[in-house]
Amino acid sequence: MVDLNKELFCNIGDCSVDGYFIFNCTTQKFSYLNKSLSNIWELDADEVLDHPKLLLKRVHPEDLTHVKSCYKECLKGNTENKYEFRLLFPGREKYVRAIIFSVTDGAVKYLVGTLEDTTIMRHNKIHIEQINARKNITLEVLAHDLKEPLGMMKLIASSMKEGIAQTGDERMINSLAFIQDMCERNLLLVRSMVNKEFLKSSVVEIRKERADLVWELRDVVRFYKRSKLGKIKHIKFTSSAEQIYLRLDSMKFLQVINNLISNSIKFTADYGHITLHAEEHEDTVLITVADDGIGIPEELQAGLFSHLPETLRPGLKGEESGGFGMGIIKAIVDLHQGKIWFKSKIGVGTTFYIELPK
């Protein structure tokens, strides 16, 4: 049982810019709320004291079920609970974070906690995540887009060098060898950048927050479709619902999706099909990344999520494999308490499945 010093709590609340409250679960009324809480909710404090259910009318309709389930969870135990949800106002919304304790005083149970307006911080975080996600996708797209022209330049330089070799012009021969070398170095540099960015995801702790998976995945596919790759591959996204909310480290999980799409691109012929789908179930969400590419040979399937060198294959256009992508994908999915598996058939294609808890 946690003892509550009401006087001290209220004194702190009266001085704080965050919302402070004490809610009597028996009477369904607030024993105390500070001015900051009513300011965050943009309601008169006296109105809230008289009619606590007014608060629910400010909750974003998409988050209302979530907020009600949070309240029920708080009633069950005596532990600290942290929640994030949105408030909806005409033409705008607020993000708020609540920290709530369940306290029993005699026969009466109270919910005691604080409320913080995290709108600016949340918007900044979303913006940073979008920049990072798009940076990673841009690197991946760049690796694909540069492969063809650099490879072609290298091939032409090699062909020219063979012809000029007969003339004995050492200056031209050395210049063409330099072009060949620079093309090779730049191809390796771009691939190295992509691999290093993805490798970072496996060594940094994840920070899960409530996110709309549909919005995140749609944004990834939209970026690919706008690139050159979108013109030579049929990439699409489908979902069983308009919004699917679950707790994710969005930036790292999108690295997983980006890497799976990238692999599909490598092993799917031009104008082939790549489909990303999200399916919501009662307690889980199933994400699939499917292609109609060349498939994974049966002898390579058992060690695919390991760092086994024999599982590495160049793409259809000679794209190198970093050697650790699939291992990191599984590590990030495991950190989300999820599961990953795949089905593949030579000449038919491959489908990866990721199951995450809601």
From TrEMBL:
InterPro entries for the chain: HATPase_C_sf, HATPase_dom, His_kinase_dom, HisK_dim/P_sf, PAS, PAS-like_dom_sf, PAS_fold_3, Sensor_kinase/Photoreceptor
Give any GO molecular function from the UniProt entry.
Answer: phosphorelay sensor kinase activity
**Keyword Kinase included in the entry's annotation:** yes
Q: What is its EC number?
A: 2.7.13.3
Query: Does Transferase count among this protein's keywords?
Result: yes
Q: Which terms are listed as keywords in the entry?
A: Kinase, Phosphoprotein, Transferase
Annotated catalysed reactions: ATP + protein L-histidine = ADP + protein N-phospho-L-histidine
Q: Which Pfam families match?
A: HATPase_c, PAS_3
Q: Which Gene3D superfamilies match?
A: Histidine kinase-like ATPase, C-terminal domain, PAS domain
PAS domain boundaries:
5-78
Histidine kinase domain sequence ranges: 141-358
- Protein name in the entry: histidine kinase
Q: Which organism is it from?
A: Pedobacter terrae
